[in-house]
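Recap slide: ABC transporter ATP-binding protein, sequence and predicted structure.
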Amino acid sequence: MMETQLPPSAREVTSPAAAVLDAVVKRFTNAKGEEFTAVNGLSLRIRRGEIVAFLGPNGAGKTTTIDMLLGLTRPDSGHVELFGRAPQQAVRAGQVAAVLQSGGLLPDLTVEATVRMLGSLHPGADIEGVMARAGISALRHRRVAECSGGEQQRLRFAIALLSSPDFLVLDEPTAGMDVVARREFWATVREDTQRGMTVMFATHYMEEADQFADRVVMIDEGRVVADGSASSIRAAMTGRTVSALISPADARAVAASPVVRSCVVRGERHYFDATDSDALLRVLVTQTSATEIEVAPRSLEEAFMAITSQGRTAQEGPR
């Protein structure tokens, strides 16, 4: 993936930020000849050493933004830079690497042969070290075609580490990994960020973003719609979810309360989306026969759904 690699002394640093996107716009033309805007005035600054989750619904502009950061495409307007230089220059200097969901592997080679072959492009690369960090040392003699999807992702991770990148882009990095492998992967990533590496990852696993990201950036319709820690984004969405075992008649009465936005039934439990969970609790305890009452803050997934839905509603306007 990297054309050349400069030694660390040649990696000039002129910007305090790892990545900067300033008012970036990217348009495409579909098969019908119609122009559409994939990224629409997006501005973002990523600090060094951060782990940033990059979230958005399908078609939000995530892939196009990542492609611009990797120098695979250029913006129609606006500015993109990595470590104070153009993305293509940062890539050629070995400062940037990526772990993508598919492709890039030769099925008939063994795991070790794959790493050694690509490691030859990076003089001084620690072949054994990156295999150990990616958790694939025990797979060294296995053909790539015989590896599971999760094992192939770990192999891609090892390859990405060969250049000792300063900025690592991950696209669904733990797809196919089991729970143990996923936690080991993120423990390794965290160690690397503590040494100064910056990580940006796109994922559909909301709990992964919640647990492992220092910062969550949500985009929709090509724009940033939320930016902050997972906890701050959840807190910005007012209200909590209150669930209970309750009779259908009582549930209908509670759902009509002004502090309840909506009510859904899952199995035997009713779940109330409440703007004022304390007021709803008083109603449930004093005016109904509800039992096994539980109160939970909004999940990041619920906040994501609410924020992206609000963004689309605001753009569509009243009907």
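The first strand starts at residue 17 and ends at 29.
The chain is about 35% helix and 30% strand.
(End of recap.)
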